[in-house]
Amino acid sequence: MGRPRTNDATVKERLVDCATELLATRPQESVTVRAVATAAETSTAAVYSLFGDKEGLIAAVRDRAVASLFQAVTAVPTSEDPLADLYALAVAYRRWGREHSHLYSVLFGGVQSFKPSGATVGTSDPVRPLVMAIDRAVTESVLDGEETAIAVSLWVTLHGLVTLELAGAFDTSTAEAAFRSTIHATLRGWTTPAVFRSLRHDEPAS
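-> structure tokens emitted (206 positions)
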């Protein structure tokens, strides 16, 4: 049986699938054009024809991860409670990581040192909904601090929790409890004094 057409959309999709899996489970330097082509049951010429080179293929994997995460976080509805919205975004981030563990590993690291090339810009940046929600919370005097610092603090917390969960560090019940309590605590830490006092005995709505 001959090899599939090198410029076929199906082959392109399969190459991205295989590159995603390999990058999520191996050091980047071991993920060669030949290794991906072999896994996808096609030729190295297909990679060069469809992506230009290895970096072009890696960029395609990263673009898929970014687009998928962006779709997940932008699907979160906005409510009248800024803290509830931020918690909902955190939940969406965690859900995406659990449902797309290979894409998560490629985009944010994991068992290898993958570093995405290029910059995420424009309205498709998956960080944008988080920053906008934080900006709203600061404007409405719910959170107190510089927006970027709050965003980094929340993302570091989220990334640590999700990474440990995907690595199998927690059982299901521990992961649920740790996520809920830690995200609420992080959000409370950035609230204004008035809001903090109102939340001392109550967690934000989840």
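Residues 110-121 have pLDDT under 50 and may be disordered.
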